[in-house]
Design brief:
Strand order of the largest sheet: 3-2-1-4-6-7-9
CATH topology: Rossmann fold
Largest sheet: 7 strands, parallel
Order of helices and strands: EHEHEHEEHEHEHEHEHH
CATH class: Alpha Beta
Number of strands: 9
Number of helices: 9
Shape: globular
Helix content: 40-55%
CATH superfamily: NAD(P)-binding Rossmann-like Domain
CATH architecture: 3-Layer(aba) Sandwich
Radius of gyration: 20 Å
Strand content: 15-25%
Distance between the termini: 57 Å
Length: 270
């Protein structure tokens, strides 16, 4: 049975590929992006199965209006994919206040506001799927990526609580945690030059070369769509062997460090 999707950040990369694959299999898509003209080719090919709206996700009032219009103009929204976001890479000390504020507004606050905006519509129709693009960077961390990790660790915590809140309404949530996908994300990211004290240290890293991007965009998106079709979707969808290995290694190390503190933790008991 054909689905209707609401997808943010649909102009390029993961968002664009999601729109294309959903339309190609006969679904309907409500796509939001800053410049709807970027999807003119898909509109010519798929006609009224593609609905478009201009949206800067950091404009909360506009975001709420677009979400309301999408629900009003479609009989049902089966899957919401919160995809809009970008990267700023650099040493925490070297980032500007504006870079910090803008990235948190785009990657974290806007994702929270989108979830808050769509839950009433999903609840009113008896349920649906809410999928949030996170990253293996929502579970692990690298030097010079601190601000990016803030947004991903933050949205992971938000969804951990949200999933339980909305489950009684038939709303299922999935955090999508890909590894190094060939999407153009790293090429488009803002890179802040490393200041003198950090040169030669762990944060003095070259851009990620293309050959290190090991995960397929097409296969990653196909896995997301398959999960949206699943009768029992996971709350976290790990995609890419690189993500699985890095995340499991990191989480085991973290758990081991916590387990080693059982006796010292008890010293604070009442």
């Amino acid at each position: 049975m054909a689905k209707t999707w609401l997808i943010t950040g649909a102009s390029r990369g993961m968002g664009r590929e999601l729109v294309e694959q959903a339309l190609d299999r006969g679904d309907r898509v409500a796509a939001t992006l800053r410049r709807p003209s970027h999807l003119d080719d898909l509109a010519r090919k798929h006609g009224d199965r593609l609905w478009r709206a201009a949206l800067d996700v950091t404009d909360t009032a506009r975001l709420r209006a677009v979400v309301a219009a999408a629900f009003a103009e479609h009989e049902r929204i089966d899957v919401v994919v919160s995809n809009a976001g970008y990267g700023v890479f650099g040493v925490a000390e070297d980032l500007t206040d504006e870079q910090i504020d803008q990235m948190i507004a785009t990657n974290l606050t806007a994702s929270i506001q989108l979830a808050r905006a769509v839950v009433p519509g999903l609840r009113a129709q008896g349920g649906g799927r809410l999928m949030q693009l996170s990253s293996m960077g929502g579970q692990i961390a690298f030097p010079a990526f601190a601000l990016y990790h803030v947004s991903k660790w933050g949205i992971e915590g938000f969804y951990e609580a949200l999933a339980t809140e909305v489950a009684p309404f038939g709303i299922e949530t999935t955090l999508i945690e890909p590894g190094m996908v060939r999407t153009g994300f790293f090429d488009a990211a803002t890179r802040v030059p490393v200041s003198e004290p950090y040169r030669g240290g762990p944060a003095d890293r070259p851009p990620v070369p293309e050959e290190q991007l090991t995960d397929s965009l097409e296969k990653t998106v196909a896995a997301i769509i398959a999960t949206a079709d699943s009768p029992d979707p996971p709350r976290r969808l790990v995609l890419g062997s690189d993500a699985w290995h890095l995340m499991t290694t990191t989480l085991r190390e973290r758990l081991s460090a916590i387990e080693a503190q059982q006796a010292s933790a008890a010293t604070a008991d009442l």
